[in-house]
Amino acid sequence: MNATDTSGWNTSGQFGSSKRTKTPSYARLAITDALLGFGALTGLCGLVGLADDAGDSLILLGFSVIAVTIGLLGQRSFVRTRRPPSSKILVGLVITWSVLVVMGVGVYLATGVIDTVDEALLESAAGFSTTALTVLDPTELSTSMQLWRAVTQWFGGLLGVLIGVVALPQALRGSSLIGRVAATDESRLVRQPLLARRRILTMYSSFTFLLAVAYAVTGMGVIDSIVHSFTTASTGGFSSNTDSFVGVNGGARVVATVGMLVAGSSFFVAWWTIRGRVQPLVRSSELRVYVAAVALTTVAIVISADQMSVGDALFTAASALSTTGYAVTDWTTLSDFVLAVLLIVVAMGSMAGSAGGGLRVVRVHTLMKSVMRELRRQLDPNVVVVVKNSGYPVEEESIDRISGYHVAHLAVCGVGAFLLAASGMDVVESLWTAVSTLSSFGPSVGTGPFGQLGGVSPWARLTLVPMMLAARLSVLVVLLGFVWVGGLKRSLMISTRRARASVRR
User: Fold this and answer.
1) Which domain holds residue 303?
2) To 10 degrees, the CA torsion angle through 96, 101, 103, 109?
3) Has residue 494 been placed in a domain?
4) What total of structural domains would you count in the chain?
5) Separation in Å, CA 164 to CA 90, 157, 286, 342
6) What pLDDT was estimated at residue 125?
């Protein structure tokens, strides 16, 4: 329905019934939806922190009013397009994320927490991209700002899940980069976008609430429990402690480990578990690879780092695979073997359909099977090998897309590493930082185990921002966005030339 009946002045100048036509738009309505959610959460942070720092709280409340007002006006002006073009969906995702980051920059500058635009831009981007990088000392933040910084990651994680489970499949019209949806439960979760969004929001919020309660039970304070529940559920990794989980008690570490493992798994796994569907869980090859990767990484750390306990090794493995970024020790000082293992698992990342980042387990698994198939074909050209995922064959078209995605991902990573090296980092540090940032992990050999960027040059900080955008929205969306901008530029140039030609005539 594109028009709604409203009460107002009609064309004859009398107050009465008239029709206000709403403009169909996917992108603009996506922005207004995001601003409504962002504004509501910002307002809650402001209210909670009033007793601690009234200045920060009032500024947050002011931004909340602005965001909610713009969102409500957008809801009155636009209606959701039923079948939006793929380009509109992808452009809408990029613009929505950009608007949120700009709002975050405004909050940091207005509160005085950050004085420079480049640092505010990086901090805001790190929040909404759920990357464990920061230029702040979290212990110096007021209660409202601690909560708000954690909320940006929680909201960014929610957007990431919605993008991966709802928006991208809708934009790609079923031509998924992870192969055909093999289970009927997955189809029921994403068949209706509105219903899928509600289910994801319910599960995501419930998981966050359970984490907050679990943290509080271990003796962690109320505010700290809320902050860490937000950043664990979103795999954001921001901590209210300067040294992350180094000085936190063992019970809270156990909660964080379990939380990171769950957050790094797929929302489809959570959906199957809630519905009591054991068969899809058993059939999921991605889940098996994910669990095996956690176990092997833990064993590798325990064997190579004698000073680390099994619990700390599992914590580190869970943080790396889920791309959360928490740290329980300075893992950057461990052996080169451990650093190589962590680099591999950080690059691979979490499961598809989770709040985490990285290449995704299912893509890496499918690509490795495709490579093994090609090796077998070299030995026996007549052999027929079908690549399967969870017992179902993967289409050749999907394999081609996955291969292309990997090439694009590696290309972006290579460019980022080159720019970081040009800014002054050495080769190992620049490579580690590029891989870590593009996987939305954050900490690296170059930035330290806690992701502190105080000693990083402004040029390097600006280089990390578009990489965080690619990490959260996926490299595919960003590259297609550049293609769309290039096409728009060409269209404008052609239109301008035609206009000039018509004027001359």
Assistant:
1) 23-175+184-368+387-486
2) -170
3) no
4) 1
5) 12, 11, 16, 24
6) 95
Alpha helix locations (H) across 266-335? 267-274, 278-283, 285-304, 310-321
Place of tokens 């969306």: 477
Contact criterion met (CB below 8 Å) for 122 and 108: no
Q: Is residue 362 part of a domain?
A: yes
Beta strands 392-393; 388-389: pairing state: antiparallel
Q: pTM of the predicted model, to two decimals?
A: 0.86
For the chain (length 505 residues), average pLDDT per consecutive 10? 42 46 78 92 94 90 95 84 73 86 96 93 95 94 95 93 76 49 45 76 94 96 96 95 93 97 90 83 89 96 89 96 95 93 95 90 89 86 81 80 84 92 91 95 93 85 90 69 52 56 57
- Residue 214 one-letter amino acid: A
What token pair was written down for 138?
A: 């979290």
Among candidate residues 328, 1, 59, 26, the one with its CA nearest the CA of residue 193: 26
Whose tokens are 């943080």? That residue is 319
5 in a domain, yes or no? no
Q: Distances in Å between the alpha carbon of 114 and those of 391, 403, 466, 500?
A: 52, 41, 20, 47
Collapsed DSSP state (helix, strand, coil) of residue 387: coil
- In a domain, residue 141? The reply is yes
Maximum distance among all alpha carbons in the chain? 85
